[in-house]
Amino acid sequence: MPENARRRRAPARQRGQEAARRGYEPARRGREPARGQEAARRGNTAARQSRPPRPNRPPQADPYTGLDRALAAAAAAPAPAAATFSQLGLPERLVRALAARDIHEPFAIQARALPDTLAGRDVLGRAQTGSGKTLAFGLPMLTRLAATNATDGTAAASPRRRERAPRGLVLVPTRELAQQVADVLAPLGRAVGVSVMTVYGGVPIGRQITRIRDGVDIVVATPGRLIDLLDRQACTLASIEITVLDEADHMADLGFLPAVTRILDETPAGGQRMLFSATLDRRVGQLVTSYLSDPALHAVTPEALAGGTAEHRVLVLEAQDKVPVATEIASRPARTLFFVRTKHGADRLAKQLSRAGVEAAAIHGNRNQSQRQRALDAFAAGHPRVLVATDVAARGIHVDDIELVVHFDPPNDHKDYLHRSGRTARAGASGMVVTLAEQGQIRELQRMHDAAGVSAARHHVDVGHHVVREIATSGTPVPPAPAAPPGSTADGAARRRPRAARHGGGQPRGAQPQRAGATAGRASRRPRNTAGQSWRGESSAGAARE
Q1: In CA terms, which of 84, 279, 372, 466 is 20 to 30 Å from 215?
Q2: Short-list 14, 443, 476, 392, CA closest to 176
Q3: With a threshold of 0.85, does the pTM exceed it?
Q4: Separation CA 543–CA 534 (nearest Å)
């Protein structure tokens, strides 16, 4: 047989391998640069090297650097002379209402800002959480709206209050902060005839529509729900006289600025506007330059956070010790607030603490408003003593006497660190801030502390370490929960059970009575016990008490 015939009858696998080999080599050779291409590349390199160097462009100036410098100068300015609320220009009715709430002297940001805010000027304020800025913008708003509501020297039934048209607006980033601001302003507003309501998601919108339709003076709102009302034409901002943006930096972080600009565009251009923010970045600076007219600048230094009355500590530990150390700290007799990064992390840590014998509640964005409010109210009452929260809820938590904040998960940046830590050491009180960190997180945490202006002591700890025990035994004990009033639960249940027995032994009304034989047969099949328990193993006396 000829040789070429044998090659033609070669197996297909061999033919494929031979073709692949032959096809691969030209492809490999094709990737080698040709002589002309190589020469062109060398020529381009020589041409680039012969060009004169480009002149260095001057760095682009940040258009908001001037605002930062001006705010820094305002913070460094000498404090104004001590003055009372009356001397600052508040009406006597409002001064009396403040005194009834045991507020007699203005805080630093209030003493600086009130003369300008009462005069109707736009104001840009920088102050940390817990510095009293709610009253810094709330008192002038109440004063101005009360003056326009007053007739013959008394608070009238709001003759200028119009349907669907509030006259004061406070924009905040979270539901909790909205409720906190309203809780501060509403009692003072009642004293001067000014009504306050909240507008936020997580609650039925129909009630809010009804309340606005009936007429209200001040609306404290989150941007999303307020836009829902505007889209439904249930509210108009054409009569707004004073607009306040509180925690503007956080609204920027959450992506609310497009909604905020739309809302501001619908308010009258000539109204008074106030913006308060803990930090001033580019996005907040755009709001200032676009919507504030020749604003008065006021700032105070974060004394309560930067080494003042709050003590900062970093506990360096292994990953497996994190939950046991957190449990030991959470067992302290005083209120403790834990911060985590995620919603699932909040629920998980609360369950882990509860399984270890430390009652804890969780609050985060997946909880509806009633659940979040119940958790906050219970924590404020001290039962439970431990609350686990996410960063979104951090800015709206205002509970007195929180002596310890624990960063179970390190925050994202120094701004979140400051806002988390601001839940303790409020208004000059003392407190402690503890961060649980693994060794690999120390460098980033140190940068965060430097940016926040915080100096923190560092300890390497494990379960039972003396520093952990010291923290676990610190704090003012929370009083025990009050005993349930007599007849509230147990007696009521005991009274209801005989009534059920009168209606066929717990059968629904109208149900047909069962045959005695069938009842006896079923009873004979149930397991017998002699301890006075039902067949499900529950004590009959205990069932009556529940």
Answers
A1: 372
A2: 392
A3: no
A4: 9
